[in-house]
Structures are given as structure tokens and as C-alpha cells.
Amino acid sequence: DKRKTEEAIRTFRLSSAASRPAFLEEEEAEAVNIGTATHRFLRLIDLDVFRQENVNMEQAVRSELERMKSDGILTEDEARLIRLHGVASFLKSELGQRMLHSTDIRREATFTMRIDPHKPTMVQGIVDCAFKENGAWILIDYKTDKDTEETTFVPRHEQQMNWYREALERLTRVDVREMWLFALRAGVAYPVKRIDITA
């Protein structure tokens, strides 16, 4: 009846009402934009630039940024948001070097996967980076979170990483041997444990 409908609408409006100050919402929007721009940059950089001998990673990252701006790939606003130091720290890291040595690298691979064949629930996602090493996948997710404390950072993303691992293994029929979260703000790679997400 009409009263029930009004109740439902009111409940919805209350639960979706802004409960935080506007400046916090602006900060969160900025954080999302930083993440989006940095991920896009990592997907589009020319990896061969960073494979050259004795390359200065910081300079190479800056020149890639300038190239993308002059080619119209990135706007000035996007370029301003990119965490260049984090990108350089990833490429210099042991994990980044392993990725650069791989001949089979997937960046921002999208997938849609049904979790349980008997249920309609679907999972959609984008794998930031996966590369093959000795016949198995090494899976990487880059994060621009402010909080990079391992005890909170890893558990926050552990299930998502395992969804990605499950999707990659199902779709390619190749094992994922390692999963890593790379905290771009801290320049640190954290290993992620394999957990069963279908139970």
C-alpha cells in the first residue's frame, strides 16, 4: 500500500543522506581520482623505456608523463594527480624488475566471473597487472591508499585479490603462484595469502 511505499522511500533517503562534512567527501573524490589517474598511467607507459640498461627510473617516469601529455593521452589535470614517485618505486623494486623481465604481461585485464555455477552472483573486476614467470602467473594490484600499515592494508584487499586470482586461474587455466599488493605511497610490496573465496 501507499504508506508502505512511503516508508521504504524514507528509509532509503535516510540511509543515503550525506553523513560526512563536504570537505571529507572532496578529499575522498580526490583520492579516487589519484588512484584512477595513476592506474591509467601504469597501464599506458611504454615498458621498453624502463628495460634499457642503467635507466634512471625517476627521469624515465617523468619523460613518459611528458610524452603522454604532448601526445594528448593525459590531460594536465590527470598528470597532476599521478603518483610519480610511487610508479618509479614500483619499477625499481624487485617485483617491478621481475615484471619488466617477463615476456607475457597483462595490464588492466577486465573479467566477469560467476562465483558459483548454481547461483546468479557475478563478480566483475580489473586485474591491474599479471605477468608470467616460469609458467605461472604473478598477480599484482597497485593501491594508492593513505593507510599502508600492513596489518590493516593487506586484510582490506585480501579477498578482492583472491577473487582476481580465482578469475585469472579459471579463465587462463594457468596457476597464480604469487599475489602482491603494491602500496604506491609507501613504495612497498606486501604478499597476499591464498584463501578460499568460494566457500
How do the strands and helices of this protein lay out in sequence?
Layout: H1 2-16, H2 22-44, H3 47-50, H4 57-70, H5 76-81, H6 84-92, H7 94-100, E1 105-114, E2 122-133, E3 136-143, H8 150-172, E4 176-183, E5 188-191
Parallel strand pairs: 3-4
Antiparallel strand pairs: 1-2, 2-3, 4-5
How much of the polypeptide forms β-strand, as a percent range? 15-25%
N-to-C CA distance: 40 Å
- Stretches where pLDDT is under 50 for at least 5 consecutive residues are 2-26
**Global outline:** globular
The level of helicity is 40-55%
**Number of distinct helices:** 8
Give the H and E element order. Answer: HHHHHHHEEEHEE
Radius of gyration over all CA atoms, rounded = 20 Å
Structural class, judged by helices and strands?
Answer: alpha+beta
**Averaged pLDDT, please?**
83
Q: Which strand order do you get reading across the main beta sheet?
A: 1-2-3-4-5
Largest sheet: 5 strands, mixed
- Write down how many β-strands occur, each being a DSSP E stretch of 2 or more residues: 5
Oligomer: single chain
